[in-house]
Amino acid sequence: MCVVALLSILAAILLPSIPRGTSRARLESYAIDIASVLKADRNGAVRRRTQVVTEINPMARTVRSGVTGRLVAIPNDVRFDVTLARRCNQRVAGPTIRFFPSGMSCGGVLVLTRLDVGYEVRVNWLTGGVDVVPRHRI
């Protein structure tokens, strides 16, 4: 009886401190959060009739809205790959996605993967449309 009690106490102390990885549902949630930031910036550009810039920082693993300032941070156990335009509107684009008053954008793809699960957040350069697409391993 004492051994069972001792093991129960140890389990209660140690189990909460064991790190858990990002679940599939949480990974999808990060992709949806990023998509909502991008959609808000596109809508803000059209509504305000001005250019809006979403900042993408792959090193810091963040996406920041140019309209609301909202920040989405990606956890370290998730791989974060970014493909952005080198030039946009005849300028060096840098780590940004620009949305124009017309609704168009510079476009880009942000990929979140963990183990064998992944999601792509795609920004269409022509329409500025934002989609979240499951990524399948090949």
Q: What structural class should be given to the helix and strand makeup? A: alpha+beta
Broad shape: elongated
String of helices and strands: HHEEEEEEEEEE
The profile of the biggest β sheet is: 4 strands, antiparallel
**Main CATH class:** Alpha Beta
- The gyration radius over C-alpha positions equals 20 Å
List the uncertain runs. Answer: none
Mean pLDDT: 89
CATH architecture group name: 3-Layer(bab) Sandwich
Write the layout of secondary structure elements.
Blueprint: H1 2-14, H2 24-48, E1 52-57, E2 62-64, E3 71-73, E4 79-84, E5 87-88, E6 91-92, E7 96-99, E8 108-114, E9 117-123, E10 130-135
Antiparallel strand pairs: 1-2, 1-7, 2-3, 4-8, 5-6, 8-9, 9-10
What does this protein structure show overall?
With 138 residues, the protein is α+β, with helices and mostly antiparallel strands. It has one domain (22-135): minor pseudopilin epsh domain (minor pseudopilin epsh fold). 28% of the residues lie in helices and 33% in strands. The chain contains two helices and ten strands; from the N terminus they run ααββββββββββ. It has helices at residues 2-14, 24-48, and strands at residues 52-57, 62-64, 71-73, 79-84, 87-88, 91-92, 96-99, 108-114, 117-123, 130-135. The strands form three sheets. It has a four-stranded antiparallel beta sheet with strand order 3-2-1-7, covered by helices on one side. A four-stranded antiparallel beta sheet has the order 4-8-9-10, covered by helices on one side. A hairpin with a 6-residue loop joins β9 and β10. The chain is elongated and about 75 Å long. The model has no long low-confidence stretch (mean pLDDT 89).
